Amino acid sequence: MPQTDLGGLSNSANVNDLRSLCIDLAVSAASKAAEGRVQRAQLETETKSSLTDLVTEFDRAAENFIRERLSSQRPQDGIVGEEGLDVPNTSGLTWIIDPIDGTTNFVFGLPAWGCSVAVTQGNTILAGAVHLPVLRETYSAASGRGASINGTELISSQSTSLQTALVATGFAYNSQRRSQQGALVAKLLPQVRDIRRSGSAAYDLCCVAAGRVDAYYEHGLSIWDIAAGVLIAREAGATVEFTPESAVTDITLVA
Ligand code: LIP
Q: Is the pTM of this model over 0.85?
């Protein structure tokens, strides 16, 4: 997505206000899910696109919470969320929600999961936030205003060496595509320092922003997995490209 003129939102107060709302929504929704998770020894799960593509009551509750807050605070804005129906906008702004990115980690009790909230104007990402409650990390950015982790500025890796690069990636839920992805990562592995697979695209992009990995790539992503993380990584100085730019699913990303 090219960073273009923000139109009526060129006023930094608006952009920074949107960033604050992204943070508030992501932290509130993820914290509720974390509180609920510790009270359940066993989670009831349902499956979506495949036997391994999980969804829980906490995914749905977190998204409904955010949708209710937005319908109250920003009723003219649109919504695209992983678990619910699209809502059109009359304001030109659309909120993109992944209530729990890293759902498999959430179900299995692993720490790399969080809520990702972004707001866009056309193809421009204006602001975004990712909150990972178990890690106690909140990443956020506003277009042209930099990126931060818990309020501290983020600066991405500037390494250009493939041979010493720590590279994050992920794999699709579709077994045929996983087979292709496995063959690709097998070819890449001897050429780089190492591979990391966190299970959350949002977290992988935040790790790019923080310089914790030098690069990240993945095929078959959805816009809600990446919208906030793309802005956070770009505002931290990383180069992030994804295609098709206006797609909702089956996106290929390199950062
Ligand atoms: C996840 C992505 C991750 C990918 C996983 C899964 P979800 O999203 O964030 O990058 O590798 O297979 O798609 O399903 O946890 O929201």
A: yes
